[in-house]
Amino acid sequence: MSLARFLIKRLLQGVFVVWGVITVVFGLRVIAPGDPANVLLPPDVAPEVRRQVVADLGLDEPLYVQYWEFISGMAVETPLGLYRLATGRPGGDFGLGLSLTSQTPVVDRVARSLPATLELAIMATIVAVVIAIPLGVISATNRHSAPDYGATLFSLAGISTPNFWLGVMLIIVLSVQLNLFPTSQRAIGIPGVVDLLVAGQLGAAGDGFLTWLWYITLPAVTLGTYFTALITRLTRSGMLDELGKTYVRASRAKGLPESLVRYKHVLRNTLIPIITVVGLQLGTLIGGAVITEFVFDWPGLGQVLINSINSRDWPMVQGSLIVISVGFVVVNIVVDTLYTFVNPRVGFD
User: Fold this and answer.
1) Which residues sit opposite 29 in a β-bridge?
2) Does 268 map to a domain?
3) 3-state secondary structure of 156
4) What sign results for the dihedral spanned by CA atoms 280, 170, 320, 63?
5) pLDDT band for position 86 (cuts 50, 70, 90)
6) Integer Cα distance of 185 and 102 in angstroms
7) pLDDT of 343 strictly over 70
8) In terms of residue numbers, what domain contains 146?
9) 24 pLDDT exceeds 50?
């Protein structure tokens, strides 16, 4: 199977996955307690006004009519919105409509929050991979020694530590007591740094990047700790499995340097499951950064999702969850494509 056919097949599968997520989210809106009309109206509003608002929102229609209007609206508006986005034209709400609380387009609010969440998820992944893979290699190549026991203890501590508790502890120790990092917020994002670079302000762009790094360090470490422990254990087990195979003994018998055997042959053959977990966890981090964003007041999609759930702003909840599901689909397609580059024996079939 060619790369083009593979991508088309996976994209079609992704459409069905997103459709399933949309259906589940619509069902949650129906069974969840609370009336969206209460978000827009005061408690003492006249009954006729409430009925009019419910009718304007389409909540007086049968459920199958509401569902069909929602699905058909997205099916029509999504290609149009993508076309406008690709051509740089304004407009297009992808069928999500307006937020009930702010009366602004859901797409605009999600688009403003998504870069912060992507920055946090990608940075947490980088922290995890940079620490975990070397630690896993050291642990596997020094089995039943002090480095191996230390890596195992670190992994158990990382997997067992709740993110919200770790974030609070890091804030208390490193931010409040030692004043090494800020406690919360995001002073500047990568889009802002890119804008400074485009404007030719290299010094300001460098300072902005350092400021961004200063603000994102604690949230990224908090979010990536569990991920680091997981990758460490996976790398160690994969390395131990590969080190016992015949080709490793044959490579050593040929006189190849031990570093070449470990990193070019053994580690490369271990990367397939690592890439799988990294890809799946990256999608999980995009959707699972909610608690970390809340602890550090990080202005990402998690904050939007929590506030929208608390205020029963269902258009915003639907938009946030749809973006998260699309992120999962895209990451899985990228991971499956990377398999063939890491191991050419893996085809697109």
Assistant:
1) none
2) yes
3) helix
4) positive
5) very low
6) 22
7) no
8) 106-176+222-342
9) yes
Beta bridge partners of 98: 105
Cβ distance 216 to 186 under 8 Å? yes
Say which CATH number the domain at 142 has.
Answer: 1.10.3720.10
- Range in 115-124, 183-192, 236-245, 278-287 the model is least confident about: 278-287
Nearest C-alpha neighbor of 216 from the set 324, 323, 117: 117
pTM (2 decimals)? 0.78
CB 222 within 8 A of CB 163: yes
Give me the pLDDT at residue 53, please.
Answer: 72
Compute the CA torsion angle 123, 126, 208, 331 (nearest 10 deg).
-60
Residue 318 domain-assigned (yes or no): yes
Residue 131 lies in a domain: yes
Asked whether residue 251 is assigned to any structural domain, the reply reads yes
Q: Both ends of the chain: CA-CA distance in Å?
A: 6
Domains of the chain: total: 1
Is it the case that residue 83 has pLDDT exceeding 60? no
